[in-house]
Specification:
150 residues, mainly alpha, two-stranded antiparallel sheet, 2 strands, rod-shaped, disordered C terminus, coiled coil
């Protein structure tokens, strides 16, 4: 009987240690599960954060493309404006040269003919039907020939 009692005691102690080991294992597994759940929550938050950043990046890329289009359009407009400005400047420069040449001619004519007054002369006007008129008025009337002999 003592042998059976010793065996039962050993079996009981073995079962007790086994149960304690299982309980400790379950506690460890529960702690690991809790830790993994916390990590998964953090990972989920990080993934959401990454998704938001990716959306922001896509929005910025789209905005960048729009701005590039606007810049190209503005550069084309700038080129057109610079071309117009150069053309206007060239026309204005031509007019200035005409005025300078006209003033020189008036001074030279005044030198050769001091008794004639040249102050009524206008470099922009033309002689038409015996009078000084704007060139636009002659073109509007349909007369495109100017009285060069007058």
């Amino acid at each position: 009987m003592q042998v059976y009692a010793a065996r039962l005691l050993c079996i009981g102690r073995y079962d007790e240690l086994k149960a304690r080991k299982e309980i400790e294992q379950k506690k460890e597994d529960s702690a690991k599960l809790q830790k993994n759940m916390e990590r998964e929550k953090k990972l989920q938050l990080a993934m959401e954060h990454v998704a938001l950043k990716e959306k922001d990046v896509l929005d910025l890329k789209s905005e960048n493309e729009e701005l590039k289009g606007k810049v190209e359009k503005l550069e084309k407009d700038k080129t057109c404006l610079e071309a117009r400005e150069a053309e206007t400047s060239k026309e204005h420069h031509g007019y200035e040269m005409l005025v300078v040449g006209f003033e020189r001619a008036m001074k030279q004519a005044g030198f050769f003919f001091p008794e004639v007054k040249f102050d009524q002369l206008d470099p922009i006007k033309v002689v038409h039907n015996g009078a000084l008129v704007d060139e636009d008025e002659v073109d509007a009337e349909g007369g495109d020939d100017h009285d060069l002999e007058a």
